Amino acid sequence: MSANFPLYDRIESILEPRIFKNEKKNELPAKVKKELVANLCKLDKNAAELVLALIRTHQIKTSQASIVIPYNGTENGEDTIFDIDELPISLKHILKTFVEIHKESKELTKN
Predict the structure, then answer these.
(1) Do 97 and 15 meet the contact criterion of CB atoms below 8 Å apart?
(2) How far apart are CA 19 and CA 90, in angstroms?
(3) What is the pLDDT of residues 18-60, one digit of tens each?
(4) In 10 A of CB 12, how many CB atoms?
């Protein structure tokens, strides 16, 4: 299965390649992970769907496995829940960058 998702590709191009090569050295600090989780929980439905698409695209691009809910995620009613510590480090950086872009976009539309 091929993954072609322009948002993912854009974020991946923003991030430095070293994040993907030496993942262990680039783990997000606990405070940053906590802020990321808090920000992800505040996203509207459309943004949350983009997060799921980013997670799925990352799984497809980095793994041959075709798991319905990757990274030990679980379904809770209509929600899909992930433990931040179960996600690959590079994906955490992708999600962090997405949240930053999304917040910036929301700020621009306010003004």
Answers:
(1) yes
(2) 6
(3) 677 666 678 999 999 999 999 999 999 999 999 999 999 999 9
(4) 20
* Contact status, residue 93 vs residue 32, Cβ threshold 8 Å: no
The pLDDT score that the predictor gives to residue 17 is 76
> Can you say how many angstroms the Cα of residue 10 is from the centroid of all Cα atoms in its chain?
13
What tens digit of pLDDT does each residue of 100-109 get? 999 988 777 7
Amino acid letter for position 56: R
What pLDDT, on the 0 to 100 scale, is given for residue 22? 64
| Token couple for 51 | 């997060």
Q: Which two tokens stand for residue 74?
A: 């679980």
Strand partners, 81: 74
Pairwise CA distance, residues 21 & 102, whole Å: 26
> pLDDT tens digits for 52-79?
999 999 999 888 677 788 999 999 988 8
Between helices 6-14 and 89-110, what is the axis angle to 10°?
A: 100
